[in-house]
Q: What sequence folds into this?
């Protein structure tokens, strides 16, 4: 019992050290631990994840600075600067993957996303605020997106914003998992969360 307590204390100290070492204002440090998905309990090592969704402004910067350039989604039209702080929409998985690589990050796995969304011991797997739906607490089925930091009630215990609503979020996990190959065109990738078009629990 004493050895186990000492080990837990040492692990907690290491996690705090890593959090301080890896601190980035635009990201959240998620300590390692367990999360359950569809009844399967998985251990997830510590990682960093973006605090908010990627904004149009951030993605446009990538498009302009990437070697050889990268196209903005054509569906956004020409007036993107008026919506600079709104989340990027109409993004294909390879758009998200390219942006993540350019910014020195990676897309989260399904397990990492779940750990950030509801990995805390007392967190709900349904909504950031608990088990019951609260009108107006997340941007779900409103038919229009909100700014990436606009909905403070849609903030999970880890500090991430808009995991229940606004726009759905790509992961790097395939629906039909195949660890032997990298994702390719035609592979179905897992998206998480709800959006201004679709209702979904965490």
A:
């Amino acid at each position: 019992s004493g050895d186990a307590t000492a080990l837990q204390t040492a692990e907690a100290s290491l996690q705090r050290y890593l959090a301080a070492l890896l601190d980035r204002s635009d990201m959240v440090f998620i300590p390692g631990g367990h999360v359950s998905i569809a009844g399967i309990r998985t251990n997830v090592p510590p990682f960093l994840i973006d605090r908010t969704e990627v904004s149009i402004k951030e993605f446009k910067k990538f498009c302009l600075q990437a070697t050889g350039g990268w196209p903005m989604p054509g569906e956004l039209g020409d007036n993107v600067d008026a919506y600079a702080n709104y989340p990027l929409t109409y993004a294909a998985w390879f758009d998200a993957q390219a942006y993540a690589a350019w910014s020195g990050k990676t897309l989260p796995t399904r397990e990492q996303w779940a750990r950030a969304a509801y990995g805390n011991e007392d967190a709900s797997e349904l909504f950031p605020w608990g088990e019951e739906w609260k009108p107006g607490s997340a941007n779900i089925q409103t038919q229009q997106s909100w700014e990436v930091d606009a909905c403070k009630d849609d903030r999970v215990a880890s500090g991430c914003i808009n995991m229940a609503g606004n726009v759905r979020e790509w992961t790097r996990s395939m629906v039909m998992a195949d660890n032997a190959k990298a994702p390719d065109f035609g592979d179905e990738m897992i998206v998480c969360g709800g959006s201004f078009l679709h209702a979904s629990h965490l």
Notes: Strands lie at 27-30, 33-37, 40-44, 47-50, 169-174, 189-192. The helical segments are 2-21, 56-65, 93-102, 110-118. The two ends are 35 Å apart (CA to CA). The chain has four helices and six strands.
